[in-house]
Design goal:
393 residues, alpha/beta, Aspartate Aminotransferase, domain 2, Aspartate Aminotransferase, domain 1, seven-stranded mixed beta sheet, four-stranded antiparallel beta sheet, 13 helices, 16% strand, binds pyridoxal-5'-phosphate
Length: 393
């Protein structure tokens, strides 16, 4: 349905900078749906963007505007009285690092907070880092926590992080680009709703786990006024009447983000939700999670494979050969060589598509199931393919 919607949107070809036309109201509807889904208040504002990276850049630009303590729009950061700091873990997505660099803070302003055994931000370490920075006269701007890390699907203890952020007047951005839609599920719903309740901004990608064709990202900022104050610049050739009855309509989307002319991304999101319903998306996401559980079970039951980590619909594992084979134990170099070869042959062979990553310095194979058509047969095929290639290598 999203593919069909994209074709319709291309033919209609409106600019969603603003104005008083149908596409604007479709996007407003989508924003309201997401706002309700995430538990954000009416006073918040959302925006469809290209993806998680742009959502994070947008959110952190608002954080800079609100928390830097300088008139950043007029003077930039040149009059800043103190150095700034941001906090994230090594498991946080690099798009946050890119955004922080692009916003002029420099990557040296990032404090990398260690993770626990489950790849979640260590809140005690975060508290110490903030206290240390405060004592050194450094001004904390934002914590970037993650609800569903790319590597392992880990969900940080965001409630505890939010408490710290409130105590220290720090912006809390939650990267839920991948994991956010799990809020629809019975298993993760309550936890994620509580997590988002303390967030100043959230990024969530419909083009990941809501099965919408790329590009479709979403950002929401709790304080709509701050978002508008960060981006609004209305020249005479763009009139924004702020009225739903006038020619120019409600405040323009271009006042809430960097883009002026914007495509009609909303239609594919709107039609996907209308078609599947939030209930349909919930079932598909729960099925993906169950499938990841099945994959993890099959790995556990297969002596040649080792389960390294799993969370949401991500499963990380590696081939270790037969039982007491040479690949187990200290022979890390062989393990890397063999698993890399498996990944290359698997991808080039075309039977299954998984990726790789590094966890605590170890090279691992990584499956992330975000396709509503994936089945147990696909998982079985993946296991067979990995075992077949592993034995041959
Ligand atoms: C957790 C997380 N955050 C952010 C991103 C960046 O999103 P995008 O690629 O849509 O810009 C990704 C994935 O790519 C991700 O997995």
């Amino acid at each position: 349905m999203g593919v069909f919607a994209d074709a319709l949107a291309a033919a209609m070809n409106p600019s969603c900078a603003g104005g008083n036309h149908a596409a604007i109201y479709v996007e407003r509807q989508v924003i309201r749906w997401f706002r309700d889904m995430l538990g954000f208040p009416d006073s918040s504002m959302g925006l469809l963007v290209s993806g998680g990276s742009m959502a994070t850049l947008t959110a952190l630009a608002v954080a800079r505007h609100v928390k830097s303590g300088v008139d950043v729009r007029a003077k930039g950061l040149r009059d800043a009285p103190a150095p700034f700091s941001f906090y994230m873990t090594s498991e946080g997505h690099t798009c946050a690092r890119k955004a922080i660099e692009l916003l002029g803070f420099g990557s040296e302003s990032i404090r990398t907070i260690p993770t626990d055994d489950d790849y979640r931000m260590r809140v005690d370490a975060l508290a110490s880092a903030i206290a240390e920075d405060r004592a050194r006269g450094v001004r904390p701007i934002a914590v970037v926590a993650t609800a569903g890390t790319t590597n392992t699907g880990a969900i940080d203890d965001i409630e505890a992080v939010a408490l710290l952020c409130r105590q220290h007047d720090i912006w809390l951005h939650v990267d839920a680009a991948y994991g956010g839609p799990a809020i629809l599920t019975a298993e993760y719903g309550t936890r994620l709703r509580r997590a988002f309740a303390g967030a100043d901004s959230v990024a969530l990608d419909p083009h990941k786990w809501m099965f919408v064709p790329v590009e479709a990202g979403f950002v929401i900022v709790r304080d709509a006024g701050a978002m508008r104050a960060t981006f609004s610049l209305v020249p005479p050739y763009i009139r924004s009447a702020g009225s739903p009855t006038g020619v120019y309509g409600l405040p323009w989307f271009s006042e809430y983000g960097f883009q002026q002319t914007r495509g009609f991304r909303a239609l594919k999101v709107w039609m996907t939700i209308k078609h599947a319903g939030l209930g349909g998306l919930k079932s598909a996401i729960e099925e993906n999670i169950a499938l990841a559980g099945y994959l993890a079970d099959r790995i556990r039951a297969t002596p040649q494979l080792e389960l390294i980590a799993s969370g949401l619909s991500v499963v990380c594992f590696r081939y270790v050969g037969g039982g007491s084979a040479a690949l187990q134990g200290p022979n890390e170099e062989d393990a890397v060589r063999v698993n890399r070869a498996i990944l290359d042959r698997l991808q080039l062979g075309g039977d299954a598509f998984i990726t790789s990553t590094e966890l605590k310095g170890r090279f691992v194979l990584r499956a992330c199931i975000v396709n509503y058509r994936s089945t147990r047969e696909d998982v079985d095929l993946l296991i067979d393919a990995v075992l077949g290639i592993g034995a041959a290598v």
